[in-house]
Write a structure and sequence with these properties.
The protein is mostly helical and 124 residues long. Helix content is 65%, strand content 0%.
Length: 124
């Protein structure tokens, strides 16, 4: 069933008020709207947006699993975020709060482990 623009905007507002983030709304609509477009609908409707620190605090995440996936399984913050259905920035923030040094993006893309990263840094 195809929605009218007004119906879509109404649904975006309902989803946001129900706790979904603009990123989750983007996934819900399967590419029919971007997270920025969803956020614009919310702002135009005069709905106060949640700030990032409030959003990051509200996630109840299994830090033991996050640390295991990041350090032992070498998952990226992006992939872990997908697993927990949260933005990668939340994962990065939680790892840093736990005192875990995150991988440099160049080394993470190359698939290097932290030991390889440290060895490379010592060579230069």
């Amino acid at each position: 069933m195809k929605r009218t623009p007004d119906e879509m905007e109404e649904e975006i507002i309902t989803l946001y008020r129900g706790g979904m983030s603009p990123y989750q709304i983007e996934r819900y609509f399967e590419g029919k709207i971007t997270h920025g477009g969803a956020r614009n609908v919310i702002l135009r409707a005069g709905i106060p947006t949640r700030n990032r620190s409030d959003v990051k605090k509200r996630y109840d995440l299994d830090m033991k699993k996050i640390v295991h996936l990041y350090l032992d399984d070498q998952w990226s913050t992006y992939r872990i975020g997908q697993e927990f259905d949260v933005p990668p920035s939340v994962i990065w923030h939680r790892l840093n709060q736990a005192g875990i040094r995150t991988r440099d993006i160049r080394n993470a893309k190359a698939g290097n482990t932290d030991e390889e990263n440290n060895a490379h840094e010592m060579d230069t």
